[in-house]
Amino acid sequence: MGLRYTIGGIMRLFVGLVMSIGVAMPALAQQPGVQAEEEGAFAAPWFVDPTDMTRNPDDITNRLKQEAKRKDTLLRTPGLDRMLRPWNEFKDQIYDDYGLAFGVFYTALYQKADASLVDANGQSGPDEASGGILGIAGTWELLGRDTQHPGSLGFRLQDRHRMGAIPPQNLGPDIGSLWLTGTAFNEFDMSLVELYWDQHIIKDRLAFRFGKTIPFAIHDYFKYKSPVSGFQDSNFTLNSSIAWVGFGLGAVGLVRPTSDIYVLAESTMLRESRTGPASTAFSTMASTSPLLTSAGTRVIWTLRER
How sure is the predictor about 215, in pLDDT bands with cuts at 50, 70 and 90? Predict the structure, then answer.
C-alpha cells in the first residue's frame, strides 16, 4: 500500500524537510543565559533552571531552550548556517527588546509493520502509517522582566496531519498492539492547543500557571517522555494509571521550599469534543458535552552532585 499524498500533504512535507534541515543547524534563537553546548538540557542537576514551571521536555519553555542549543549533525552545511544566521539574530533581538521567544517546529513519523491483523472477511488492515506535527510555540515575558516576580504568556499552535492512509496514532490496533505506536501523531487542523499565563510570586520559590494547558506536558515526566524527541509508544509516554484528559482549562501551582525539593500540583477540566482538541480555545467549556477533569500532585526531591 503506497502513501497517498494530497497537495496539502506535499506542502507540509516540503515545509517539514526545510525545517528539519534548519533544526539540524543552530536553527532556533538562543535565549540569553542558555549555553550553546552539546550536553543535554536535562543533565544533573535535574532542576537546572528554577524559573521553569516543569521539567517536562514538551513544556514550551523547555522545548525552546533545548532547540536553542547547537547540536552536532552529519548534515551541517556552512552555507546554510550563514543563510540562517540573520534569522537567528533577528529572533535574538526580538527576545532582547520585547521578551518574546518563539520557535517553529516540524516532526514527521513513518511506521511500517511486517504484517497486520486480518478481519472476519479475510481482509488485512493497514500495515504502515505516516504523519507530521507542525507547531508554532513561544513565551512572551510581559511583566517583571529581571525581577523576582516575572509574568509571561505561553502559547502553542499545532497542525497534526496524516500523509498516508492513516496517521501513526491509529496504527497500533491494526497490527495487534495494545498500545499506541505513534502517540500524538493524530489528525486535526491548526489549533490553539495551549494559551496560559505563568506568574512567579517569588521567583524560584512560588509560582502558578492558569489557562489552556496540556496535563501531559506538566505531570509524570522524564527525559524521554516527549513523543517528538523520545519514546513514541504510549506504554512509555502515557502512564496508564493516570486518567489523562486532553487540552483544557487548567491551573498549576509550584512551591519550592528548599533548593532540592519542590511540589507541583495541577488540575485540568474540559468539555468532551468530537471536533478536535477543544480547537476553539475556551469555547468548548460552555458546551453541554460531558465535563472531564483531572488532578495531580507531584513532590520532587532533586539529587545534586556534591
Answer: confident
